[in-house]
Amino acid sequence: MKKNRFSEEQIVRILKEAETGVQPIGEVCRKYAVTEQTFYRWRKRYGGLSLPELRRLREYEKENARLKRIVAERDLEIDALKELMGKKW
């Protein structure tokens, strides 16, 4: 898998630079060597976020992943118990 060239903080700064309107979006994309498609994908995901909001979003994503793991483990335990209880001794 290809490593990301830009951190999320850098992406937010690039989007803020493009929002100022001093340079057209095409110029900003050329300056940072990204395609306009990538720029618009970033804008869809990170548009309107400030750096503190971005950090909070990252924390929420980590917490969500942790909770999903906990639920998956619990489901496995429940499934194993049901299978064990269904057997006749």
Please tell me about this protein's structure.
This protein has 89 residues and is an all-alpha fold. It has two domains: 1-49; 50-89. The chain has four helices and no strands. It has helices at residues 8-19, 25-32, 36-46, 51-86. Helix 1 (8-19) crosses helix 3. The longest helix is centred in the C-terminal third of the chain and has 36 residues, at 51-86. The protein is elongated. It starts with 7 loop residues before the first helix and ends with a helix.
Tally the beta strands: 0
Q: What fraction of residues sit in β-strands? A: under 5%
Tell me the series of helices and strands, N- to C-terminal: HHHH
Low-confidence sequence ranges: none
Q: Give the helix proportion (percent range).
A: over 70%
Number of helices: 4
Which structural category do the helix and sheet elements fall into?
Answer: mainly alpha
* Principal-axis shape: elongated
Computed over alpha carbons, the radius of gyration is 22 Å
Largest sheet: none
Q: What is the CA-CA span between the terminal residues?
A: 49 Å
Taking all residues together, what is the mean pLDDT?
89
What is the count of distinct domains?
Answer: 2
